[in-house]
Amino acid sequence: MSMTPIVLCGLALSLLSGCSSLLSAIPAILGGGEAAAIGAAGAAQNFEYQKLIEVLPRYDGLEHHSVAVLVDAPLDLQYTKPELLDQVAGGLMSRLQEHVPNIKMLHPMQVRNWQFTTPQWNAMAFGEMVEELGVDRIVLVDIQEFRLHPRGNQWLWEGVCRASIGVIERDGYDTDSFADLWEVSSQFPDIEGLDRDSATEWEVQTGLLSEFIKQTSYLFYTHIEPKHPDKYNSKLDPELDL
Where do the DSSP E strands lie in the chain? Predict the structure, then answer.
């Protein structure tokens, strides 16, 4: 049976209409695929930003040794922040005792009593210090800068703690020289433009000291750090001490 031209024309139009609908759907399909690809790329990037890496200690010679933490600072800083030296010494002792295997820490109060009863202790030869304290190692923290505000602006919070960290070895090659020496500089908070109405002095000082003590302790034991510190979001890993 032959079809009339009218029927053939109707079938052709119907096919063209279906093709037209399919063609019109292609941009939407492609758009959805593009959005999915962008989303996947964003997720991969966020995953990369949250990566953690294992970092080895810069110095591992505190293990299986007796250790004293000595903290020094300029006299004007000791006058304005009399609690600072004890807070740094106590905090650092706690972290080292927790993370360094088989370490024997001299109690900070014993160290402070020795400092108080030994005039000009910071002018002594290093070898004499370890002998008098009766330890194998001294971690000497010499605080060189400690401030909570930008210079010249008391209305904003911008905490900085900078210090040199040296290790004195009783059994070292040269007991009157540092076996190792680093500089640690910590900042807190990591929010620019935080004003005095948004946080208290106690909060800023506590956060700054916590950050400084953590970074200093990291010199002495294997630990975990963000691969991209400037991109890492600590709120996504609240159980980690980073």
Answer: 52-55, 66-72, 104-105, 137-147, 159-169, 180-188, 223-226
Question: Where do we find the tokens 């909570």?
Answer: 148
Distance CA 129, CA 137 (A): 10
- Residue ending a domain, among 33, 49, 65, is 49
The answer to whether residue 32 sits within a structural domain is: yes
- Let me know whether 142 and 24 are in one domain: no
Domain that holds residue 36: 5-49
Q: If the chain, 242 residues long, is cut into consecutive pieces of 10 residues, what is the mean pLDDT of each piece?
A: 44 44 53 62 74 94 97 96 96 97 96 94 95 97 97 94 98 93 96 92 97 98 86 72 68
Specify the pLDDT at position 1: 46
Helices 108-117 and 84-99, packing angle to 10 deg:
140
What is the structure's pLDDT at 237? 74
Same domain, yes or no, for 68 and 11? no
Element (H, E) at 9: helix 5-49
Residues 71, 146, single domain; the answer is: yes
Instruction: Please give the backbone phi and psi of residue 127, each rounded to the nearest 5 degrees, phi first.
Output: -60, -35
Q: Which residues pair with 72 in a beta bridge?
A: 142
CATH of the domain at 131: 3.40.50.10610
pTM value? 0.78
Query: Are 106 and 220 in a shared domain?
Result: yes
